[in-house]
Design a protein that fits this description.
This protein is an alpha+beta fold. The chain has 9 helices and 11 strands. A hairpin with a 3-residue loop joins strand 1 and strand 2. 29% of the residues are buried.
Length: 262
């Protein structure tokens, strides 16, 4: 390790370059756990602060991802997003370093059936707006969304550029309607012929289905949505505690899928 210390290149950068080379040559493969901070510190005879700085660089460059209390892992070219913070699709994709846009498949007013009416807390047969969109990351289809809105909110969206802007952005910036919370349900499904066509998949390919209701002030539903995600394109990450008194050592890290493979 003396030659590292005699090298003009900072130690943390040398460790970053060494890890990068190990990953590129296949020594560490996608989703494989890297040596711990302690192990790297001993191997290179440097402080954990130096190792942590090297790992932070790789994380910033999306070469690795880190799970608190578990370790660092080689990225598999899917984007990793925290699920415990309410974000719209544009925010998720943009924060992951991709260019986000949408392709509107249909926008129409219709009468709510019982299921949609129950979800939006409105009367059956009340007027609603349905918006179907293909969501893109760097031009590649990532998700297919079906969104139902009470007609009041849906009419506010009409005429706005849904290709480049999200419903959240339009409501909050143009009409000062805050988006406060969302209720999620996540399950695995198989692609229907329609979904497969929109997402460049084969019928019955695996998808992640996220059903959610988004609320504004007074617990008023803004929209009910079904999102069908390509499970090879997106990774959601979240942490949960065993109970309210759980210590940091009791944090559970969970990963699920969420964004774009090159």
């Amino acid at each position: 390790m003396d030659e590292m210390k005699n090298n003009a290149v900072p130690l943390h950068k040398q460790i970053t370059e060494w890890l990068q080379e190990q990953i590129e040559t296949g020594v560490f493969k996608a989703n494989e756990k890297l040596p711990s901070e302690n192990d790297l510190s001993e191997q290179f005879e440097v402080s954990r602060v130096t190792v942590r700085r090297a790992l932070q660089t790789l994380e910033n460059e999306k070469v690795i991802y880190r799970c608190q209390g578990v370790g660092s892992f080689v990225n598999d070219n899917r984007a990793h997003n925290p699920l415990m913070e309410l974000k719209d699709f544009m925010e998720e994709v943009t924060n992951s370093g991709f260019s986000a846009e949408s392709r509107v498949v249909s926008y129409e007013q219709k009468h709510a059936d019982k299921e949609i009416a129950d979800m939006l807390n409105i009367k059956e047969e009340a007027m609603i707006v349905e918006i179907d969109r293909v969501r893109l990351g760097d031009g590649e289809p990532i998700a297919y969304d079906q969104t139902w809105m009470p007609v009041f909110y849906g009419q506010l969206i009409d005429g706005h550029d849904l290709q480049k802007r999200s419903i959240y952005q339009i409501l909050e910036s143009e009409y000062e309607i805050p988006v406060l919370k969302g209720c999620y349900r996540i399950e695995a499904v198989n692609a229907t012929p329609e979904q497969a066509t929109h997402l460049n998949l084969q019928e019955n390919d695996a998808l992640m289905k996220i059903t959610r209701i988004t609320f504004t002030i007074g617990d008023k539903p803004i929209y009910y949505q079904r999102r069908y995600l390509r499970s090879d394109k997106l990774v959601y990450e979240f942490q949960v505690h065993r109970d309210q008194e759980a210590s940091q050592n009791e944090i559970i890290d969970v990963s699920a899928s969420v964004l774009a493979r090159s």
